[in-house]
Design a protein that fits this description.
The structure is a single chain. The chain is α/β, with parallel strands linked by helices. The strands form two sheets. The protein has a five-stranded mixed β-sheet, with helices on both faces. A five-stranded mixed β-sheet has the order 8-7-6-9-10, with helices on both faces. A hairpin with a 4-residue loop joins β6 (131-136) and β7. The chain is 42% helix and 18% strand. It has helices at residues 35-39, 46-68, 87-104, 113-119, 163-173, 180-188, 211-226, 233-258, 274-283, 305-318, and strands spanning 4-9, 14-21, 25-33, 77-83, 108-112, 131-136, 141-146, 153-157, 263-267, 291-293. α8 (233-258) runs parallel beside α9 (274-283). The chain contains ten helices and ten strands. The chain binds 5'-O-[(R)-(carboxyoxy)(hydroxy)phosphoryl]adenosine and zinc ion.
Length: 334
């Protein structure tokens, strides 16, 4: 039976609504980005983000319905990001979802934001289990083992900063503005091997650490400035990116060796990184029997279509009419 999901995403600084049919066909996908406003402050200001969500959410939802050329009668369920994320931002999406659910008597599907990033890969092809997902975003750096379509075993995670957070912080130190990931990605292409940065050391097999690397960049800049040397920003971006991605990929490849999987996928905003896409594609050539999927650029960063894709699976497990649901800024996967 056809399943039409109205999906809402408002966990950080994008107000988004999408209409997704059967988890694959995107009837509409509206994203209202606040980046230009947060750019002025050098990062996301939570209070500002939630106010803008309040201003935009109704228009974004109406536009998604209009563009999909459907009515609320056609919608089977309302999916939304329940967490993790900024509390004030999440509240706006959760409240909108509950209101629509109550008004039209539609079930809700409360989702973990990262599930959205993972199931975005369904837009490329059917996911094959068991699989390993490398989740790389502004808030998460994880290796997730999925035995089947709705089980999430986090086998590795960051002990401090998320990789996207490290990109953003290093970009700020280099004066590249917000968001830092795309800026470093671009600038690193003009850089060369010049500066040495230490590879993060983490004793556990699949865990990560990025805060030491971030501090090492800061120290490198201060040292060069003290010596009166002009910093080559492109070379710093290059050095940071090579070391960060090396530590990321080496952990993932250990997991690929040790777990018997049919698919490896990328998920999250940092999956848009051109160098990461290049390295992982190269490395996975050693495993021709494992399918590698990388989401298209448009659905690496936050959007609601990915929430619709996740909901198509999650509806079997999480469907609810419970209007006492609320935002969960530290929600855990599962
Ligand atoms: O998934 P996302 O949109 O939001 C979260 O769930 O956090 O990810 C945002 C993160 C930011 O840290 C941003 O700098 C990073 O993804 N990012 C990138 C690139 N595009 C976005 N990092 C590296 N290279 C990129 N091209
Ligand atoms: Zn995200």
């Amino acid at each position: 039976m056809t399943q039409i999901i109205l999906a809402i995403e408002s966990s950080c600084d994008e107000t988004a609504c999408a209409i997704v049919k059967d988890g694959k066909e995107i009837l509409s996908n509206v994203v209202s980005s606040q980046i230009n406003i947060h750019k002025l402050y050098g990062g996301v200001v939570p209070e500002v983000a939630s106010r803008i969500h309040v201003e935009n959410i109704s228009c974004v939802i109406c536009e998604a319905i209009e563009k999909a050329n459907i009515t609320m009668d056609d919608v089977d369920a309302i999916a939304f990001t329940q967490g993790p994320g900024l509390i004030g931002s999440l509240h706006v999406g959760v409240q909108a979802a509950k209101t629509i659910s109550w008004l039209y008597n539609k079930p809700m599907i409360p989702l973990h934001h990262i599930m959205g990033h993972i199931y975005a890969n369904n837009f490329i092809c059917d996911m094959q289990f068991p699989l390993l997902a490398l989740v790389v975003s502004g808030g998460h750096t994880e290796i997730v083992y999925m035995k089947d379509e709705f089980s999430f075993d986090i086998i590795g995670t960051t002990q401090d900063d998320a990789i996207g957070e490290a990109y953003d912080k290093v970009a700020r130190v280099l004066g590249l503005g917000y968001p830092g990931g795309p800026a470093i990605d671009k600038l690193a292409k003009e850089g060369k091997k010049h500066y040495d940065l230490p590879l993060p050391k983490v004793d556990t097999l699949y865990d990560f650490s990025f805060s030491g690397l971030k501090s090492a960049v800061l120290q490198l800049i201060q040292k060069e400035e003290k010596k009166g040397n002009e910093i080559n920003k492109a070379d710093v971006a290059y050095a940071f990116q090579e070391v960060a991605l090396k530590s990321l990929i080496s952990k993932l490849m250990k997991a690929v060796e040790n777990y018997d999987v049919k698919q490896v996928l990328l998920a999250g905003g940092v999956a848009a990184n051109s160098r990461l896409r290049e390295i992982i594609t190269e490395k996975m050539k050693e495993y021709p029997n494992i399918l590698l999927t990388i989401p298209p650029l448009w659905c690496c960063t936050d959007n609601a279509a990915m929430i619709g894709a996740a909901a198509n699976v999650a509806i079997k497990y999480l469907k609810t009419y419970d209007l006492s649901l609320s935002a969960m800024p530290s929600k855990e996967m599962g």
